[in-house]
Amino acid sequence: MLIPFLKTQHRAHGISVGLALLVLACAFLIFSRKPEPLPSLPKPPLFSAEFPVDPRFSREINSLLTSQQLSRHNHRLISSSVMKASQALEMPPALLWCLLFQESRFNHLAGINESPIATGLGQFSFSAFYEINHQLDRYLPSPKRTLVAMLGEDVRPIVADAEHPNEKHSYYNIPTAVTASALYLHNRKIQLERVLQSRNLEFNSELIWFWAAISYNKGTRTVISLWNQIQKAYGEAGLSERLTEPELLMKTIEDRGLLFSAVKTIWQSQQAKAFTEELWRHSKSLKECSLNSAAISIKETDR
b/e map of 209-230 (b: 16 or more CB within 10 Å)? Predict the structure, then answer.
């Protein structure tokens, strides 16, 4: 009877050892596995859905309304026209709204009784009028269809008609001014993207809208000169980073030295200094008015 008992004990001991080894093997597999990375959070949109972002712009709007320098009717008409134009051209409404406010403080009759270089809501110049009236086919597959969708008809030629400011062809007509300005901003983006494609550079299309707003105000050659200076300072990889990473773009527009190095290749020194300051203030205002702060936060390591 002793032998069967020993066999039973030996079998039980074997099972216990086997179970222990199995537990050890499972524990090894569990603890030796690399932890799976947490899914990355989606990046917040660059442009804010609520605008203006900085409260000082809202305070300024309220001041204009209170002093009746801006009527409530015109304010509503500008805002609704901005939304319609932005939807038609797939552009951030925050950027268009802030750009127009920056250009004229929503005075759609700015320069109407003068002979300024630029006039109206979006401070249109001769070259802007010429492009909208004669060169839209360079940027749109069907300019006529686009204008009909936005304004109900093709109102070209659009002119600064001071005698008939409310007529649809007049740039002093608010919906027409917003539409023409939006088209000009849209064209700057297309133009800049073509330049980048020709240079085989990667870019964030959303970020190019901000570059387009700089181009709207200071010209495409200024933006291209700035890109050239960035590449000279940081290399092609550094330029690509500033075309794809919002926080690095923000560092760029805050660098007065870099801005001046770009501007002075186009204008003489004294004029370049004034234009650099204008460019710095313009870019800063657009940033504070239209951009989502969560999208442009700069990490401490990047400072």
Answer: bbbbbbbbbbebebbbbbbebb
Angle of the 269-290 helix axis to the 55-66 helix axis, nearest 10: 90
Which two tokens mark 295? 């999208």
| Secondary structure element (H or E) that encloses residue 222, with its range | helix 220-244
- Determine the Cα–Cα distance for residues 184 and 171; give it in Å rounded to an integer: 13
Q: Other C-beta atoms within 10 Å of 182: how many?
A: 25
**What are the angstrom distances between the C-alpha of 86 and each of 93, 159, 170, 213?**
5, 22, 20, 14
pLDDT grade for 300, boundaries at 50, 70 and 90: very low
Q: Which residues does residue 124 pair with via DSSP β-bridges, in sequence order? A: 119
**CA-based max dimension of the chain:** 123
* Cis previous bond, 157, omega within 30: yes
Rg (CA), the chain: 30
Q: What is the pTM of this model?
A: 0.85
Distances in Å between the Cα of 205 and the Cα atoms of 151, 194, 197, 290, 293 are: 26, 11, 12, 16, 18
Q: Which amino acid is at 146?
A: T
Q: At a CB cut-off of 8 Å and minimum separation 6, what does 10 contact?
A: none
Q: Rounded distance, CA 265 to CA 251, Å?
A: 21
Determine the straight-line distance between the first and last CA of the chain, rounded to whole angstroms: 84
Task: Measure the CA–CA gap between 122 and 81, rounded to whole angstroms.
Answer: 13
110-145 in b/e form (b: 16+ CB < 10 A) is: bbbeeeeeebbbbbbeeebbebbeeebeebbeebee
Per-residue tokens: 193: 């993207």
Cα–Cα distance measured from residue 135 to residue 4, given in angstroms and rounded to the nearest whole number: 102
Residue 175, amino acid: P
CA 276 to CA 269: how far, in whole Å?
10
Q: What would the pLDDT profile of 217-255 be if each residue is shown by its tens digit?
A: 999 999 999 999 999 999 999 999 999 999 999 999 999
